[in-house]
Amino acid sequence: MSRDLMTPLARLSAYAAGQPIDRLPCVPIVGNTAARVVGARVGEFRGDGRLIAEAQVASYRLFNYDIIRIFTDLYTQAEAMGATVNYPEDETAYLAAPAVSDLSGIERLRPADPLKDGNLPHHLEAMRRAVDAVGAEVAVTGAVTCPFTNASFLVGAENLARLMMKDKAAVHRLCEISLETSLSYCEAILDAGCTPSLTDAMSSMSVIGPRQFREFSYPYLKRLIDYIHGRGKGVTLHICGKTSGIWEAMVEAGADCLSLDNDASILDAKLAVGDRVRLMGNVKPSEIMLQGTVDEVRRATLDCVAQGGDNPKGFIVASGCSLPTETPFANIHAMLDAVREAGWPVKPQVL
Amino acid sequence: MSDIKEKLFQELSDAVVDMDEDKAVAVSKGVVALGIDAYQAIEHGLSAGMERAGVLFDEEEYFIPELLMCSDAMYAGMDVLKPHLRLDGVAEKHKVVIGVVEGDTHDIGKNLVKIMLETSGFEVTDLGRDIPPARFVEKAKEIGAKIIALSTLMTTTMDGMASVIRQLNDEGIRDRFKVIVGGGPLSQGFADRIGADGYAVNAADAIRLARSLVAVEADVAVAAGLGAAA
After folding, report:
1. Is the CB of A205 less than 8 angstroms away from the CB of B157?
2. Domain ranges of chain B
3. ipTM greater than 0.95, yes or no?
4. Chains A–B, number of C-beta pairs less than 8 Å apart
5. What is the Cα–Cα distance from A3 to B211, expressed in whole angstroms?
6. Of B104, B108, B187, the CB nearest to A158
């Protein structure tokens, strides 16, 4: 396959300016798969910013995708606020217990200090190191869990769902204090020369309805995005699962790029909001990227290009969500290769 | 069905759909006071309401918060009615063992499936979350379950599902159980590959799947001249 002719940064800025590019930007969202690139166990990422950076930079150099995202799991902010996270030796960390078990605990919650609490300082170190190593050629982003999703880790997803119906003020308190943590974490990320990348798993329509999104998630999301815009950076917002009913709200909240999961249609999103935001997505992370053949990856990737390649505000060919740790390298290469094959302008005969 | 019974069953159903725990309790007490059959009140009242809530979920009128509140109302009514069930009149229920596989603690999906299975007349043993494969097998044997239902939201834990099936094979008891799987990263292809009996894309689908699997078994039993199992 032909080699890339541009660096990711040059490609993204030319693409944004409407100038010629060698291929569409492409981001297989590599998280803990990066451990496999350097032969590390996932659990070793805990508390080791140097290793996270080394793995993420090595992964970027191996696959040549267009955005590096420093990410290990969704729980770093919640952990820094008191949630208990389990770290298996060689698998993705998971939430063992929320920060508080009852309503009275909510009053005792405090926003995290990203320079001191939990693993946040290590993630910031990873971001600084990655920026130092390759920031001149590729965008380095740091994953930030959005306030509503973080709130669900503070009190437990089911508790939060019931509070939404029974005690709205409690939900707003949880989101407000989560926002405070998100804001100071974003500030530290931006100070590290990195760009926040927002992820809001629980705001999905697979969990809450569009009206609930407006009421409980949107206000905090908007304030977070306003802050990042104020620091001169664009915002990519990822929400997992079904999202069609909240695309408008995601755009209104200020997102510059919507990262969509495979339960959403890129084609529909293009028609609905593609004149206002860039889109990113949505090759199936598990069914295709983890379990599919190289040829299935190629076909799924070209199908995404066919749906979103002509999006008015631009398109990044991506996986629908973070890749599973054991995603075969050949499939990640195949995704990039398919985007190279499609070229730019996209060759219609390839699709 | 007499008018008063019909009216009370409708009120129970409405209490569930309206997420009204207090009303579900009050009407259930009324049912008991009038000596109306508790089993019928659960089936035609509370469970019927939960099924309506499930339809609203499918139609994206209700989401997970509403569904949880509906189930709270249903269980509140059940707590009142259950002591008044006349056990002899009730057909034995198909037993299900359900849980989230080891390494994953996301259990909203599993909890919804459990609620809907109970609503649909299955007897569900919930092992909880972060459950090692051997526990599923052990519990299924112990209670004589027909179905083992495995859930995960994480790709890292999918292999645990295959382990359950491997263990059933190793013990030579695979044909005693139907194994169904569900959760975000899964697909029909994955279910086929690990040799599961079925894959459900959501809670409503899981019910259809569970019902069809026990129905198939009953048909086979009839064909074999053994009489229906249920």
Report:
1. no
2. 3-89, 95-223
3. no
4. 78
5. 54
6. B108
Domain boundaries, chain A: 8-350
Contact A205 B60 (CB under 8 A): yes
Is the CB of residue A296 less than 8 Å away from at least one CB of chain B?
no
pTM of the model: 0.89
For the domain spanning B3-89, the CATH number is 1.10.1240.10
Q: Which residue of B has its CA nearest to A206?
A: B63
How confident is residue B155, by pLDDT bands cut at 50, 70 and 90? Answer: confident
Span A248-267, mean pLDDT? 97
List all residues of chain A from 76 to 115 with a beta carbon under 8 Å from chain B. Answer: 86, 88, 91-92, 94-96
Average pLDDT, chain A: 96
CATH value of A8-350 in 3.30.365.10, 3.20.20.210, 3.40.50.300, 3.40.50.720:
3.20.20.210
Kindly write down the DSSP assignment for every residue of A37-87, as one continuous string.
HTT--GGGGTT-HHHHHHHHHHHHHHH--SEEEE-S-TTHHHHHTT-EEE-
Tens-digit pLDDT profile for residues A181-207: 999 999 999 999 999 999 999 999 989
Report strand pairing: A84-86 vs A94-97: antiparallel
Which residues, in sequence order, are CB contacts of B4 under 8 Å at separation 6+?
B34
One of 3.40.50.1820, 3.40.50.280, 3.90.1070.20, 3.40.190.10 is the CATH number of B95-223, namely: 3.40.50.280
A29 Cβ under 8 Å from any chain B Cβ: no
